[in-house]
Amino acid sequence: MGERVSTMALREVCSSEEIAEGQHKLINHYKGEIGVVRYNGRLVAIRNRCPHAGAQLLLKAVRPTTVAACPHQIELGYQDGVFTCPWHHWEFDLRDGSCLADPRLKLEKFPVQETDGKIVVEIPD
Length: 125
Ligand code: FES
What we know:
Layout: E1 8-15, E2 24-27, E3 34-39, E4 42-47, E5 65-67, E6 75-77, E7 82-84, E8 91-93, E9 109-110, E10 112-115, E11 118-124
Antiparallel strand pairs: 1-11, 2-3, 3-4, 4-9, 5-6, 7-8, 10-11
């Protein structure tokens, strides 16, 4: 019996203008949703599932986290691409997918490209 070889396929998500700064778009995949997020002008594609307990990470909006502010003030933002899971508020770094509280937990990421006004994700077949 042969061993199954995992292959990747390119999938067009949408046109570039459909994902504005701080926004995201979800696509369905047989292993679960994949979210494409634009932050700080960059695109990141992640599995829409928290590695802690399985929450949908991307609901209506990408949840910000606290950022450096004046003493006794709290501001929300996406400093360094960090955002918050809606269930238990663990924070994740979109740059490498790591959880700030436990770097052994990682978001599942996928290569994403933006070419000729189209956003394309490379996902498993
Ligand atoms: S499910 Fe995301 S922090 Fe718990």
